[in-house]
Each structure stands twice: as C-alpha cells, then as structure tokens.
Design a protein that fits this description.
Elements (H helix, E strand, L loop, with lengths): L5 H20 L6 E2 L26 H23 L1 H6 L7 E8 L4 E8 L4 H32 L6 H7 L3 H11 L2 H10 L12 H7 E2 L4 E2 L3 H9 L7 H10 L3 H7 L14 H11 L5 H20 L7 H21 L9 H11 L2 H12 L11 H19 L9 H18 L9 H20 L5 E2 L4
Antiparallel strand pairs: 1-6, 2-3, 4-5
Bound molecules: zinc ion.
The site of zinc ion (ZN) has 5 residues, from helix 18.
Pfam families: GRDP-like
InterPro entries: GRDP-like
Length: 466
C-alpha cells in the first residue's frame, strides 16, 4: 500500500503535526461551534461488556474501558500533584528565599532585598503522589481481605459484594498494577490465603459506568460510596478524604504533615482514616513494591495518554487489530518457546486487559501456549530492547506483517478505511476509492479539532457531512 512508504508517512506526520499546532492556535472555522458535537468515544464502543469468558480473548469494549481507565489514572496523578489542598495536608509549602544585593542609592551602598522563587517546590509537590500511593496500598490490603471475606460468605451476587468489587479509584489503581505482575499477585494471594479474589473477573462494565469521559474522573454511585464508608470503613474518594483531613486539626493532619520523616509517634486513634494513614506511614517500606508497581505503570499510562487512542476516530479498528495482533503474539510463545518476546504498545494494552482477570488469563494462556506466561514489568531496558527486536523478527517471519505499528490517528484511520473498503468490495459494492483519502482527512481533522477544543475549553465543533 502506497501510504506506508516512508516518505509518504513522513509527510503525513508532518501535516498532522502542523494541523494540530494550527488548531491549538485558532479554530479552523470549518464547522459550526456549540452544542451537538460528536460523543467521543462513541457509546456503541462499549456494547460488549456483559460476559467475560475464560476461553476468549479480551473484547474491543474491554480494551476500550482499559484505555478510559488509563486516562482516569493520568488525571488522578495530575490532580494529586497539583492539588493545593493536598499541599496543605502534606505540609508542602513554597519557601521563597530573600537575598540582599548591594545597591548604590546615590550617597552610599545599601542592601536591597530580592525574593527568589522556590525552585524545589515543583519537585516536592511530586512527592505527594508517592505518599498518596502508600496510603492507597494500605487501603488495598483492607479492601482485598474484605472481598475475600464476602466472597467466602457466599455473598456473591449480593449488592454488598458488587459494591466491594468496584473499589475506590486509588485501590483500583493498586490492584490493577499488581495484577500486571501475575506471579507476584498469585504469590501474595497464596501467602494471605486469598483464594477467591484470584478468580475475580475484572469489573470492566462497572468501571466504565463510574467513568466520566468528558473529565476523565471516576465516581462511585452514592449508595455504593455510602456503604463503603459506613460498613466497610473505606472512604470512596481518597483525594477528598485527605484534603478534608488537611483542613482539620487532628492526628490525621499531624501524621500527613510528617509523612516524609522517619520518626513518628505510635497512634491509637479510633478514626479509620487516621489509622490507615498511620499504618501507611509505619509500613512504607513494606508496601513499597505495590507503590512501585503503580509508578512503573505510570510510564505506560503516559504513553497511552500521549497517543490518546480513546479519542481517535479509528479506536474501534485499532483495538480490533490490536486483539488480533495479541492473538498472534501469544502464538509466538508456543512456536518459539525459548525466545524472550516483548510486546508493542497496542499488544501490551490487550495483554494487560487480559491479565486484569487473573484466572481467565492463567487458564487461557496455559491452554494456548502450553505453559503459563508471566508478565513482569520490572525487566531492564537492555533486555527489553533485545526482546523487542527478536519479537519483531519472529513476528515478521511467521506472519509476513509489520510488528511495530505507528498508532497515530491518521495511520490508524487510513488502515480502518482500507479495511472497510476491502469489506465493501467483498460484499459486492463498489465504493468510490478516489474519495477515500479525502474522507479520512475530514474525519481525522474533525476529531483532532474536537479534542483540541475540549482541552482548551473552547466551544466544541459540530460534525457536518459536507
Ligand atoms: Zn502515523
């Protein structure tokens, strides 16, 4: 296909870059602006969230919710780092310095004060994220014990277990990153005798319902949040709970303010949040691996955020192709058992989606490959690069297809359009090929302008078929 030649690709990407820069500067005026913009992602993308099967690959809908969830994680991290309320709670303050400069006042030298900006403030604010995750890790331990307990008591299908299975966002993030280190999670569950939690199918449908795709925020239904707080003693929103604790004088505020320090006093406070914060402070090094799991995952989250696949006009096709490529990737493990294989970004997304339902993944992959394939994201850069190169070689050899794909909106939209064209021809229709490039350009342009407008809080463009 002509569009994959390097020079065409280069000019396509250059054009995309210029278009986005231009749109940031000013709207294109190609559309009318106001209410009635396309809903992106399209709700129909999430039609297939009902039944997860241990014998099936992840669905397009599950992968799409995963993309949404990663955007929510990205937003949460930004919110925590930039929250003035959490600055107060963790006692992170600006420390401007005053220096005195010698100045001639016409008769003598005087010392003139000059205030210097606190250049370390930005970095100190970032430490809140790690503190936040340390507290989330304690909440994760409490939460998972409760899930096991309720599952054991055969409360399966009861509203209580359903409430529990959709955890607060911080707990969800710890759980998610832990699941992506399959053997570590299994070992943890076995050590703590948590048999039933390993069987949980990840609650994609409920997660999707909790997500606002305009703001990338996550809100539990009120009755759900009330039950968690009153019965399970888990606050539904850790950011709000810590922000509120920072506003009150009390033990919680004291421990938060001293979170970085090594010395802390024993605390017997009856308040659940205070106890959680205290335990987090006390067990910081013990919970460090769980925190690190999330920190490593943040790199993946940032990459996905940069691609913004969930807002792409071709997201459905991108996910469909990624699932197909993941299927082929798994086969490589069977064909070449002694080769270390590293996934591409899109394949990794599907792989992660699969691993989120730990038992389904374990069952499926063991059947497919003949042995269990662990996913360990602690592997070093050099080994990863070598693994990627060998995966690329074996993939090409086996399937005669490119392994690395661009994933930009334009490339993906072109691929989807060409696939659609092939289908139409197979169906006996004769679509106007000459118009294809123009159609793709219009579609990508609209989605691009919509996303830029959304981010810059401008009026949204309304799609027109002209
Ligand atoms: Zn591209």
């Amino acid at each position: 296909m002509a569009h994959v030649s390097p020079s065409n690709l280069l000019s396509l990407h250059n054009k995309s870059y210029l278009q986005t820069s231009g749109l940031r500067y000013t709207p294109s005026e190609r559309y009318s602006y106001g209410s009635g913009a396309k809903v992106v992602p399209d709700p129909s993308l999430f039609n297939d969230l009902k039944n997860q099967s241990p014998n099936a690959l992840p669905t397009i809908s599950e992968c799409a919710v995963h993309l949404e969830m990663l955007e929510v994680f990205h937003t949460l991290r930004q919110n925590v780092i930039h929250s003035p309320e959490l600055d107060v709670a963790f006692n992170i303050q600006q420390k401007p310095r005053t220096v005195y400069r010698k100045k001639w006042d016409g008769a003598k030298y005087v010392a003139e004060p000059k205030t210097l900006k606190d250049t370390g403030f930005g970095d100190r604010r970032k430490t809140k994220w790690t503190h936040f995750l340390s507290i989330a890790a304690v909440r994760f331990h409490d939460w998972i014990e409760l899930v096991e307990k309720y599952s054991k008591e055969r409360k399966l299908g009861t509203p209580q277990l359903r409430y529990l299975l959709l955890p607060p966002l911080d707990v969800l993030m710890i759980w998610h990153a832990f699941l992506l280190n399959c053997d570590d999670f299994k070992e943890y569950c076995e050590r703590k005798e948590l048999r039933l939690v390993q069987k949980i199918a990840f609650p994609w449908a409920d997660i999707h319902n909790a997500i606002n795709s305009d703001t990338w925020t996550y809100t539990l239904p009120p009755e759900h949040a009330d039950w968690l707080r009153d019965t399970a003693k888990i606050d539904a929103n850790l950011v709000d709970a810590l922000s509120a604790a920072g506003q009150r004088q009390g033990a919680a505020k004291q421990i938060l303010a001293a979170f970085r320090k090594e010395i802390f006093k024993k605390n017997e406070d009856p308040d659940p949040l205070t106890r959680t914060i205290h335990t987090a402070r006390e067990n910081k090094s013990h919970n460090h691996p769980l925190v690190q799991n999330v920190e490593r995952q943040c790199i993946f989250v940032d990459k996905m955020h940069a691609h913004r696949l969930i807002r792409s006009p071709a997201v459905e096709g991108t996910m469909r192709r990624a699932i197909d490529r993941y299927d082929k990737f798994l086969h490589l493990f069977r064909f070449y058992p002694n080769i270390f294989l590293v996934p591409t970004l899109d394949v990794d997304l599907v792989w992660h989606t699969h691993q989120c339902s730990a038992e389904h993944y374990r069952h499926f992959v063991t059947e497919r490959v003949g042995r269990f394939i662990n996913h360990d994201d602690k592997i070093g850069r050099k080994t990863l690069n070598d693994g990627f190169t060998s995966a690329e070689e074996w993939y090409r050899l086996r399937y005669g297809e490119r392994y690395q794909v661009c994933l930009c909106w334009s490339c993906e939209a072109i691929l989807s359009a060409v696939e659609k064209l092939d289908e139409d021809i197979l169906d006996g229709n004769e679509p106007p090929v000459s118009d294809l490039a123009h159609q793709v350009e219009r579609e990508v342009h609209y989605y691009r302008e919509l996303e830029v407008a959304r981010r810059l809080d401008r009026k949204l463009p309304v799609w027109s078929h002209k």
